[in-house]
């Protein structure tokens, strides 16, 4: 996909364009999940992780679906990112961009995107704020309560997981197996996500989480 740019390059760009810690955490979480699935499916984990980092990089600049991610594409081109990376990012909002999902990476991005929000929210309501203490049973309870992390569209997550399963796993990846995979990927990246308990001991940090 990209012979020059790396995940480190993607993170450097994110740091210049995104100041909100929650948005950065979301993109880092998606990046971790994307890297997990790239390795499992035999694709380049560096490339998939970079896409996960970049997919919402312009949300602070264009915080509406009339502009995001369409208006972010010229910024990425100016920064030297290749057209394939840009195409994948545009495919995560087909309704606005007209760019259809075609490749495994496209389906992975949509499947991993929103569900990270539920997992992050479930972590942050724990006194420890430590993702190591989050398990699938507690996520199932949070999933059923649609008032919790209400911005996470459960039906959309389920549909995107079905699509991902069909394209990449022959229909054998069940929703909760996918959610567990994303949780495991995020747990492995806990220090980067600041979900290793540090927020519980830092009042100032937790207020901006």
Characterise the protein shown here.
The protein has 209 residues and is mainly α. It has a single domain (7-195), classed as Hypothetical protein af1432. It contains 13 helices and no strands. The longest helix has 21 residues, at 21-41. It is globular and about 45 Å long. The N and C termini lie far apart (33 Å). The mean pLDDT is 94.
Short précis:
With 209 residues, this protein is an all-alpha fold.
Considering the chains and any ligands shown, give keywords for the structure.
Hypothetical protein af1432
End-to-end Cα distance: 33 Å
- What's the gyration radius in Å? 16 Å
Coarse shape:
globular
Number of domains: 1
Structural class: mainly alpha
- What CATH calls the topology is Hypothetical protein af1432
- Classify the helix fraction into a percent range: 55-70%
Find the count of extended strands (DSSP E, 2+ residues). 0
Q: Which whole number gives the mean pLDDT?
A: 94
The stretches of 5 or more residues where confidence is low (pLDDT under 50) are none
Quickly name the level 1 CATH class. Mainly Alpha
What composes the largest sheet?
Answer: none
CATH-defined architecture: Orthogonal Bundle
Percentage of residues in DSSP E strands: under 5%
Helix and strand element order: HHHHHHHHHHHHH
